[in-house]
Design brief:
The protein is α/β, with parallel strands linked by helices. It contains 10 helices and 6 strands. InterPro entries: GNA1162-like (IPR008517).
């Protein structure tokens, strides 16, 4: 009984004092591995949008390159798999690291999974949301170096507080037209990719050698 009371008090304290600070990530294995190059595998898509994997894949190189790593060109990597009869991301993710090393010779491999991708429509609002998870693995030892998750949503850019019911309906209509006539999911995927794979985010990837060299200059 006393333990339950303490647990309740802890929950109440956390509510009253706000969200807890995100604990720091343990980068011990990442620093010991010190990868210089990253092989990005085609993302596994668990969303209902069949274009999610390719759409997200085209946007992962920039944040990783800006973080200071050499990123194997994703188009070349994808074509290499295709020439060897492999186009399914789940099948590619199941390949052994020894095989990936034999073909590409990258220091590390990043596995990405998309859990949300697309727009959901409601009466007074529409939300385009992309959520992805990533794991970076040492290609030689198989050691997990880093993992993370990120989400971005179109509602972050919306302001539906004013105008009453009529205002909400107008905003919802405008947003649905925009989402229908533009590839909003692709734009939101770019935000998610940046948050997930940037060296500037909390508990993100560590700065790579090229970024560290620039920071020393």
């Amino acid at each position: 009984m006393k333990i339950r009371m303490i647990a309740v008090l802890c929950v109440l304290a956390s509510v009253l004092t706000g969200c807890a600070t995100t604990p720091p990530y343990d980068y011990t294995a990442f620093r010991e591995s010190n990868p210089r190059s990253i092989l990005v595998l085609p993302p596994v898509n668990e969303s209902l949008d069949t274009s999610a994997s390719y759409s997200f894949l085209t946007q992962v190189s920039l944040p990783l390159a800006e973080a200071g790593y050499y990123v194997f060109p994703v188009a070349v990597v994808e074509e290499t798999f295709r020439e060897n009869g492999m186009s399914n991301p789940e099948e590619i993710h199941s390949l052994g690291l020894d095989k990936l090393n034999e073909v590409f010779g990258a220091d590390s491999v990043i596995y990405i999974k998309i859990t949300q991708y697309g727009t959901s429509y409601q009466l007074l609002a529409s939300d385009t949301r992309v959520t992805a998870q990533a794991s970076l693995v040492d290609s030689r030892s198989g050691q997990l170096l880093w993992k993370g998750q990120a989400t971005a949503s179109s509602t972050e850019q919306s302001n539906n507080n004013g105008g009453g019911l009529v205002g909400l309906l107008i905003v919802a209509l405008v947003e649905q037209v925009i989402n229908s006539t533009t590839d909003r999911s692709y734009q939101i995927a770019g935000m998610t990719s940046s948050r997930l794979l940037s060296a500037q985010t909390v508990n993100g990837v560590l700065p790579g050698p090229r970024l560290r060299d620039r920071q020393r200059q």
